[in-house]
């Protein structure tokens, strides 16, 4: 009987919040040339001699804030999604979970999948919006591994799904637990990327700033991370009845000022200073709670909000293992069989 393998891939997590486990995770992640796209030697010096030695200790403290009795949310929600998806898809599919960095490793999981002799493999990166540093890296890694197989089955990559009805439905369902009338403003915060990353999307060599990515999506910018983030926001806001003047799209987790703007923390500060008391924050690029949602938005942005006069900045939880989200993944898989 023909059987399809499904590989669900997320970014990754240290094995524990201890420095000894955070250090190799950061090293593997930051040495990826799709993440830090500078010359090899410069990247090795920057990552291995500067960032990792000094950042491992501070990152370990932050991971301890995130960790629960079940471990890393990114991992245990991934396992829940895998099991729920397997149940929905049935025996004609084999669902597997891997992380781009650390464990369960793509090398080990794809080795297991090779032994299943699948007729077809569908790779589903858990990143709704294409970015070279996330989706691109996961796809490249899978291709490198499978390229060494003697028998390579039919392979399909789902590179982005920022506008898929199921994904939008899941985001809307998450928001319904809150009374939107209580909030004066809505923040849609996406993970930032360097401006040069989105500039590289344009094959004619023009920079992203030459395109109207905040307001329209075209054949030219359909793989521009910035453009698809704005487009997802418009779809969610329309479904929830949020007028344009009441929401802001922004980007978080920047490393320097040459990343996509506006910066989420600055938006939070400005809105609080303007006299607003309650803000609801969405994070549609993160399908599972992680450092960037639970800690950065849920804790750090709340502190900024209060420091400048605000009262409550409420985070809308990520999709995690919400049944509507798992149904959406199932639909996207079935569409490609």
Task: Name its key features.
single chain; alpha/beta; Rossmann fold; 2 domains; four-stranded parallel sheet; 8 strands; 45% helix; globular; metal-binding; metal ion binding; porphyrin biosynthesis; Ferrochelatase_C; Ferrochelatase_N
Topology overview:
Layout: E1 4-13, H1 19-30, H2 40-66, H3 73-89, E2 93-102, H4 106-115, E3 120-125, H5 132-146, E4 154-157, H6 165-175, E5 185-191, H7 195-199, H8 225-240, E6 247-252, H9 264-273, E7 278-282, H10 291-307, E8 312-315, H11 323-334
Parallel strand pairs: 1-2, 1-3, 3-4, 5-6, 5-7, 7-8
Helix pairs in contact: 1-2, 3-11, 6-8, 6-11, 9-10
Report on the architecture of this protein.
The chain is α/β, with parallel strands linked by helices. It has two domains: 4-161 and 323-334, Rossmann fold, CATH 3.40.50.1400; 179-315, Rossmann fold, CATH 3.40.50.1400. Helix content is 45%, strand content 15%. The chain has eleven helices and eight strands. The protein has helices at residues 19-30, 40-66, 73-89, 106-115, 132-146, 165-175, 195-199, 225-240, 264-273, 291-307, 323-334; strands at residues 4-13, 93-102, 120-125, 154-157, 185-191, 247-252, 278-282, 312-315. It has a four-stranded parallel sheet, with helices on both faces. It has a four-stranded parallel sheet with strand order 6-5-7-8, sandwiched between helices. Helix 1 crosses helix 2 (40-66), helix 6 packs across helix 8 (225-240) and helix 6 runs antiparallel to helix 11 (323-334). The radius of gyration is 20 Å and the shape is globular.
């Amino acid at each position: 009987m023909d059987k399809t393998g499904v590989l669900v891939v997320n970014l990754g997590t240290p094995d524990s919040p201890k420095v000894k486990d955070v250090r190799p995770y950061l090293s593997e992640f930051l040495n990826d040339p799709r993440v830090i796209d500078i010359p090899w030697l410069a990247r090795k010096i920057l990552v291995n001699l500067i960032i990792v030695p000094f950042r491992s200790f501070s990152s370990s403290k932050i991971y301890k804030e995130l960790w629960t009795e079940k471990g890393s949310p990114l991992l245990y929600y991934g396992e829940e999604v895998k099991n729920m998806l397997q149940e929905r898809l049935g025996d004609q599919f084999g669902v597997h979970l891997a992380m781009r960095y650390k464990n369960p490793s793509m090398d080990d999981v794809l080795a297991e999948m090779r032994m299943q002799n699948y007729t077809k493999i569908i790779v589903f990166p858990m990143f709704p919006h294409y970015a070279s540093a996330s989706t691109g890296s996961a796809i490249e890694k899978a291709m490198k591994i499978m390229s060494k197989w003697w028998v390579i089955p039919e392979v399909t990559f789902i590179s982005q799904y920022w506008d898929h009805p199921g994904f939008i439905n899941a985001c809307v369902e998450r928001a319904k637990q809150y009374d939107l009338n209580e909030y004066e403003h809505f923040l849609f915060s996406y993970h930032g990327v360097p401006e040069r990353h989105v500039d590289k999307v344009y094959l004619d060599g023009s920079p992203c700033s030459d395109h109207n990515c905040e307001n329209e999506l075209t054949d030219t910018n359909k793989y521009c991370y910035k453009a698809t983030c704005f487009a997802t926001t418009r779809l969610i806001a329309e479904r929830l009845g949020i007028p344009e003047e009441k929401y802001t799209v922004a980007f978080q987790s920047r490393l320097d000022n040459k990343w996509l703007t506006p910066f989420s923390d600055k938006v939070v500060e400005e809105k609080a200073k303007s006299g607003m008391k309650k803000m609801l924050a969405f994070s549609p690029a993160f399908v599972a709670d992680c450092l960037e949602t639970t800690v950065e938005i849920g804790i750090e942005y709340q502190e900024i909000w209060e420091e400048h006069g605000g009262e409550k900045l409420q985070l809308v939880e990520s999709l995690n293992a919400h049944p509507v989200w798992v149904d959406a993944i199932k639909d996207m898989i079935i569409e490609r069989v």
